[in-house]
Design goal:
about 350 residues, alpha+beta, Ubiquitin-like (UB roll), 3 domains, five-stranded mixed beta sheet, about 45% helix
C-alpha cells in the first residue's frame, strides 16, 4: 500500500516522499525508508490524516505501531515530527504546571451534592438543606461532597424529618430547635414537611428514645470529622450541636419518665395518696332510698358522728356504672348530715 510521508523537525519540513510499504511493517520501518537512517534518543510524534474527521490523528503507540491501521485511508498521509528534547521537556513542564493549577483551583471551590428528584416531601427537605448550605456559602472540597457531604445531609434530613411533627412537644420541654433550621421553606409558610403524619390513616408514633439516639449517632459521626472544624463551617456546626444537645435533653426527659413508670409499677403501695385524692360530699338523710345503697346505709348507721369512711370497697368496678352509682348516691342514716369520702373514679 502507498503512503505519502512528510518528515518535520519541529515546524521545518525535512523530507516528503510517496512510499510503498507492506501493511505488516511498522511506522519505524516507514520512517527509515524515507530518511535512510534510524533516529535514536529523539522524541518523534507520529500522525496520520483521518479523512473521516479531517484532522491529523496521533498514533498512540508511535513508531512501534503497525501500518495496517492505515489500510482504510489509501493513500495514507503520514507525518513524522522530530521534537527537540529540551523543547519537549519545557512544554511538558508547562502543561504539567497548568494542569496542576487547574486541579488545585478546582479543589479550592466548595461543592454540594446534587439535589434529589422531588418524589416525596422527604426529598424536599433534603433539597432545602442543600439550598440552606448554598446560601451559607458552605460545601466540601475535592470529591468528598458526594460521599461525606451527601451522608451528612441525609443524616440531618432524617433527624429533622423524624421530629418534624413534634415541634410543639419539644418546645414544651424547652428543647428548642435552632432558628436556622426553622428558616427552611416549609416552616417559613407555617407548614410541615411530614404532612403524612397528620393526614395519613396510620398509627401516630411518638418520639422514641432509641430512634432519637440512632439519629444523633449518625449526625455525630460526621460533625467530629476535620472538615466540621473549618472556620467557615463553625457557625453552622454550632447550630447542629445545639440541635443535638436539645434532642439529648428530650431523651433525658423520656428516660426519667420511663424510670418513674417502672418504679411506680414495682411499688406495693398505691402511687396516689388516697387522702389527697378524695371527693367530699355532704348529703341530707333520706327515709326512702334505692336498695343498692343499703350496704352503705348500714355502714353509716353504725358509725360515729363525722367518722370518715372509704367507699372504694362498696363501689362497682366498671367505670361507667361506678360513675352513675356515685351520682345517684343518697344515703339514709341517723345523722342529719353525713360526711362521705369517696375515692377518685
Amino acid at each position: 500500500m502507498w503512503f505519502i510521508v512528510a518528515v518535520y523537525k519541529e515546524t521545518k519540513l525535512l523530507n516528503e516522499d510517496a512510499v510503498e510499504m507492506e501493511s505488516t511493517e511498522t511506522f519505524s520501518d516507514l520512517l527509515f525508508e524515507v530518511l535512510g537512517y534510524d533516529i535514536f534518543d529523539q522524541p518523534i510524534v507520529v500522525q496520520f490524516y483521518n479523512e473521516l474527521t479531517k484532522n491529523w490523528t496521533n498514533v498512540k503507540y508511535g513508531l512501534s505501531a503497525n501500518l495496517n491501521l492505515c489500510e482504510k485511508f489509501q493513500p495514507c498521509q503520514v507525518k513524522f515530527t522530530l521534537k527537540e528534547q529540551e523543547s519537549l521537556e519545557k512544554r511538558n513542564r508547562q502543561n504539567g504546571i497548568n494542569g496542576l493549577s487547574k486541579i488545585m483551583e478546582t479543589n479550592r471551590i466548595p461543592k454540594l451534592p446534587k439535589e434529589r428528584n422531588f418524589v416525596t416531601r422527604h426529598d424536599l427537605l433534603y433539597n432545602d438543606l442543600i439550598k440552606l448550605l448554598k446560601d451559607e456559602l458552605l460545601g466540601w472540597y475535592g470529591g468528598s461532597y458526594e460521599s461525606i457531604g451527601s451522608g451528612f445531609i441525609k443524616a440531618l434530613t432524617d433527624l429533622l424529618w423524624y421530629i418534624d411533627p413534634h415541634h410543639e412537644k419539644l418546645n414544651l420541654r424547652s428543647c428548642i430547635i435552632p432558628e436556622i433550621f426553622l428558616s427552611l421553606s416549609q416552616y417559613k409558610v407555617k407548614s410541615l414537611y411530614n404532612l403524612f403524619y397528620y393526614t395519613g390513616k396510620h398509627k401516630k408514633e411518638q418520639l422514641m428514645r432509641e430512634n432519637l439516639k440512632d439519629h444523633l449517632k449518625a449526625i455525630e459521626h460526621f460533625i467530629i470529622q476535620p472538615w466540621a472544624g473549618q472556620e467557615n463551617w463553625k457557625p453552622f456546626i454550632s447550630n447542629v450541636f445545639e440541635l443535638c444537645h436539645n434532642i439529648r435533653k428530650y431523651i433525658t426527659y423520656l428516660e426519667s419518665v420511663n424510670n418513674e413508670m417502672i418504679l411506680n409499677h414495682s411499688r406495693n403501695e398505691p402511687t396516689r395518696n388516697l387522702l389527697d385524692n378524695i371527693t367530699l360530699e355532704i348529703r341530707n338523710k333520706q327515709r326512702n332510698f334505692n336498695p343498692k345503697f343499703k350496704n352503705i346505709s348500714d355502714l353509716l348507721k353504725d358509725s360515729n358522728f363525722y367518722e370518715l369512711h372509704l367507699l372504694d370497697n362498696y363501689l362497682p368496678q366498671e367505670k361507667r356504672t361506678r360513675y352513675n352509682f356515685i351520682n345517684e348516691l343518697n344515703v339514709i342514716a341517723h345523722l342529719h348530715f353525713i360526711v362521705i369520702i369517696m375515692g377518685i373514679i
